[in-house]
């Protein structure tokens, strides 16, 4: 059996070489379909790991209150989208004071500025730093981990201490791989002592999460006095079983702060980490389905093309088949010869398509700042797809070749 397979493989390779142009075109069609399929699945897997990692790190027992919810942010260009008022500082503070649901902690934060330059002893960063005003509950409630030094405490926040926590990129950037703890940085002329460094978070849609400086809220408000600052409230329920009640209580509290009457709709957004993960999962699944459908259409075209080339090959090699049968070749041997040829062409296209698909998906993923992930599921799916293509495309031509009458075949010119 092994010897027969080797002989069929040798004959198949010789046949492929003799029909190089037709084979190349067929392989190209297979490569196109597999590249698209694997490329999209590689990209969506990297996207899924990146976003799911960010949201999952927050835990399933957190939620936030902001101007809009997640679905509104996605549809922000919708002309029918209701414009909600910002959450002002007095409103955020009032909510924080009124919301006293058991076993919860509330964090008040805001983006003070973007595109800021940070200095240290004559060195300075590019103007790409984001400054966040936070309190002592911000890091735990957002799933951020301080790997060096310490986080803010209530003393730092209540006394407006000039201290800060840095993103991980500062260590290898501004501080040239030196320990940044207890060093002094300058932001808009204000001096801050570094007390902590955050764990690396990577990028989301090209925006680095590691080029951030966290400073106490009141200091951020005094240094960056922009109009219409929108504040965000992040709440963590220490008891996950009380999350639903905590969310309902938060909605009631914010409605009281906003002075909404019972018939008015909420003019603020509320986002639960578990809902976000489910929404992202369903969206990514839809993208995967679309990729599979489009890839399947392309692969179907390659199946037809491959079957056609094999049928033409059978017609052109009728006399060869007759000679082999006259010399004692069995139907099974002839069928295996042509099926092996089909299998080699399909697997060649599949292998090249997988390599190009992974390369394409990883390039796009890395350009958006996502971590590269080997798409094992996509690779397995591609191999199965090409094998199915080989079976569908090769069985009929192989059976047709095996059933040729040797006498009639020898008469063929």
Features:
413 residues, 14 helices, elongated
Rg result: 32 Å
Number of helices: 14
Principal-axes shape call? elongated
How helical, in percent, are the residues? 55-70%
The count of β-strands is: 14
Order of helices and strands: HHEHHEEEEHEHEHEEEEEHEHEHHHHH
- Spans of at least 5 consecutive residues whose pLDDT stays below 50 are 72-79
Q: Please state the average pLDDT score.
A: 79
Strand-pairing-aware structural class = alpha+beta
The separation of the N and C termini measures 32 Å
Sheet of most strands: 12 strands, mixed
What does this structure look like?
This protein has helices spanning 2-18, 20-56, 70-74, 89-98, 138-142, 154-158, 169-172, 217-223, 243-257, 273-316, 318-326, 331-367, 376-402, 406-411, and strands at 62-66, 104-116, 118-120, 123-124, 129-134, 146-149, 163-166, 184-187, 190-198, 203-204, 207-208, 212-216, 232-237, 269-272. The chain is of the alpha+beta class and 413 residues long. It has 2 domains: 2-54 and 279-411, no CATH class; 103-237, no CATH class. The strands form 2 sheets. Strands 1, 2, 3, 4, 5, 6, 7, 8, 9, 12, 13 and 14 form a 12-stranded mixed β-sheet that branches. Strands 10-11 form a two-stranded antiparallel sheet. The longest helix is centred in the last third of the chain and has 44 residues, at 273-316. The protein is elongated and about 100 Å long. The two termini are 32 Å apart.
């Amino acid at each position: 059996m092994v010897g027969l397979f080797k002989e069929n493989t040798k004959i198949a390779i010789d046949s492929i070489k003799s029909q190089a142009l037709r084979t190349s075109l067929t392989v190209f069609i297979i490569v196109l379909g597999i590249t698209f399929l694997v490329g999209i699945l590689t990209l969506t897997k990297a996207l899924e790991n990146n976003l799911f990692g960010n949201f999952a790190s927050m835990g399933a027992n957190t939620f936030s209150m902001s101007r809009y919810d997640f679905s509104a942010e996605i549809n922000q260009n919708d002309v029918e989208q209701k414009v909600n008022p910002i959450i002002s500082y007095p409103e955020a503070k009032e909510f924080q004071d009124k919301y006293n649901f058991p076993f919860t902690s509330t964090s008040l934060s805001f983006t003070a500025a973007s595109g800021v330059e940070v200095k240290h002893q004559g060195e300075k960063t590019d103007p790409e730093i984001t400054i966040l005003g936070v309190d002592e509950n911000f890091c735990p409630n957002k799933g951020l981990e301080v790997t060096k030094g310490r986080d803010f405490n209530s003393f730092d926040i209540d006394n407006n201490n000039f201290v800060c926590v840095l993103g991980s990129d500062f260590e290898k950037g501004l501080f040239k791989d030196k320990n940044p703890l207890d060093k002094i940085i300058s932001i808009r002329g204000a001096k801050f002592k570094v007390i902590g460094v955050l764990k690396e978070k990577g990028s989301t849609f090209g925006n680095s999460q590691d080029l951030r400086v966290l400073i106490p809220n009141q200091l951020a408000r005094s240094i960056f006095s922009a109009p219409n600052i929108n504040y965000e409230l992040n709440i963590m329920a220490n008891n996950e079983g009380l999350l639903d009640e905590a969310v309902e209580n938060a909605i009631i509290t914010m409605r009281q702060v906003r002075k909404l009457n019972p018939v008015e709709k909420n003019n603020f957004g509320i986002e639960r980490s578990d809902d976000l993960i489910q929404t992202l999962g369903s969206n990514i699944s839809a993208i995967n389905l679309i990729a599979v459908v489009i890839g399947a259409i392309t692969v179907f075209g390659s199946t037809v093309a491959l079957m056609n080339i094999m049928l033409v090959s059978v017609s052109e090699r009728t006399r060869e088949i007759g000679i082999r049968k006259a010399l004692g070749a069995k139907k099974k041997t002839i069928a295996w010869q042509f099926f092996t040829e089909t299998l080699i062409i399909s697997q060649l296209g599949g292998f090249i398509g997988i390599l190009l698909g992974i390369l394409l998906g990883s390039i796009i993923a890395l350009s958006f700042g996502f971590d590269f992930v080997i798409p094992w599921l996509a690779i397995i799916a591609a191999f199965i797809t090409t094998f199915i293509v080989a079976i569908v495309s090769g069985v009929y031509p192989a059976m047709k070749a095996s059933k040729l009458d040797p006498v009639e075949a020898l008469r063929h010119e």
